[in-house]
Amino acid sequence: MSDLQFFGHIIDNEEVESLGGERFDAWNPWTREVWAQAADGMAADADRAVASARRAFDEGPWPRLGRVERGKAIHRLADLMEARADDLAWMDSTNMAKPFEQAKHDVARSVWNFRFFADHQRDHCGETFPMDSGHHTYSEFGPAGVVAAISPWNFPLMMASWKIAPAIAWGNTCIIKPSEDTPASVTLLGRLAAEAGFPPGVLNVLNGHGAPAGSSLTGDDRVDRVTFTGSSTTGKLVMASAATHLAPVSLELGGKGANIIFEDADLENAVYWAVEAIFRNAGQICLAGSRLFIHRSIADEFMRRFVAAAEALTIGDPFDPSTRFSSLASKRHFDKVASYVESARALGGTVLTGGVADDGTWVVRPTIVTDLALDAAPYCEEIFGPVCVVNVFDTEAEVVHLANDTRYGLNAMLFTENLSRAHRVASALRAGTVWVNCFFIRDLRTPFGGVGDSGVGREGGNFSREFFTEPKAVVMQIDRKG
Ligand code: NDP
């Protein structure tokens, strides 16, 4: 038996192997070594996890616990996450080479996601409307049932927490399948839920691959909601699978975010955020500002500063405190991003800085490309890596058209000191989120999601409530007239 760390499935609060004993390796992409193993879920394991969540929903205390007690249990989980914050962050850094400081930031955000939804479900549990007819009507938000959540590897704990927190807060039970690339932190979360006293089956963790583990969950007719974050291609498969039993889906998919720098932008601020938007997490962010549009009159100055800032990022071991940028999350993903850099060159693009590290690591350095045609694949397709394609523009109308000329529509950024233009352009951009003079700031009360190939539905605040519950109207006669 191997002496590597092992991450099993968490089913009914027990950590278990797959029924057939299948396991897969978890890699550390910085050292390029296997550091752990995880249970590899098959259809029979998914069946077991769904049966447990179903039982916990139909017969267990969780949906009937009451809002206050449920909120307290979720805050207990958040307390335990805080106590184990370094372990959770260590796992994500080890599993996908995220700089440790950034991983700690993600853990703090994950804790907050649980606390927010623990309170939100208590404070936003219904509305009452007096009617002129002598009735009043009120809405009730009862839990939907069993939620299947499938999360990606780029923010392993945080993306999972965005799904699990509202799902369980609203009284559902949940099965989370983390990406096969990053099984560790979500499994620890499952262990902590048991420690926090969650009833068995409220939070099950199913490790394994997209198929059969993920696809067995989405296609199971005992599942009432499916929430997925990942690629647009897989999102379509997930939606088709959920449609076989009419389970509503929430899909947060890919992006090709436009980042627009107007001539009156505060350049220092714009350069800072342009770097964050495409090089944070080595560009492995669905919200990345991967298409940069700069007004012609400031293009030279902006590019000089942007290239210098990209080259100043310290590349290295995610656990070195000076590291701002590390390797990509897996060999498979490194190969994909590297092939886009190659194709950018082959298609006539000019690589101003960056490229594949060429030292045997899975690093693609912060890469900035100009001179690409608007139909070139690296310009149009989601690369999901540290590759920024740059264009100049002359007019506001032109740049709005360029920004919207994509099948994606997750987010956009714009930098200007002109208040009217900020509002006008924000309104004209076809995107689920628009950041003005900033990036990546999120308030959980607002809608989050994408347009077009970037997704279906919105989550956050009451948008999550609408998805994770079965809203009901009750109409009651108050004034018995004639
Ligand atoms: P996928 O969309 O394939 O995977 C995302 C999640 O879905 C993983 O947990 C995966 O499991 C699971 N999955 C895969 N196939 C199925 C299926 N048929 N049914 C149910 N679940 C399934 O993304 P990849 O990890 O392969 O990354 C590929 C590309 O996707 C990236 O290069 C990027 O462009 C985009 N992406 C976008 C993300 C975003 O935040 N919007 C996040 C991650 C990727 P497993 O990992 O085991 O295959």
Can you describe this structure?
A hairpin with a 4-residue loop joins strand 6 (128-130) and strand 7 (135-143). It is globular, with a radius of gyration of 23 Å. It has 482 residues and is an alpha/beta fold. The protein has helices at residues 43-58, 67-83, 85-96, 100-123, 156-169, 184-195, 210-218, 232-243, 267-279, 299-311, 331-346, 377-380, 396-404, 419-428, 461-468; strands at 5-7, 9-11, 14-16, 23-28, 33-39, 128-130, 135-143, 146-150, 173-177, 203-205, 225-229, 249-252, 258-261, 291-295, 350-356, 364-370, 387-393, 411-415, 433-436, 455-456, 469-477. Helix content is 39%, strand content 22%. It starts with a strand and ends in a 5-residue tail after the last strand. Helix 3 (85-96) runs antiparallel to helix 6 and helix 4 packs parallel to helix 5 (156-169). The chain has a seven-stranded mixed sheet, with helices on both faces. The longest helix has 24 residues, at 100-123. Bound molecules: NADPH dihydro-nicotinamide-adenine-dinucleotide phosphate. NADPH dihydro-nicotinamide-adenine-dinucleotide phosphate (NDP) binds at residues 150, 152-154, 177, 179-181, 209-211, 214-215, 218, 229-231, 234, 237-238, 252-254, 286, 336, 382, 384.
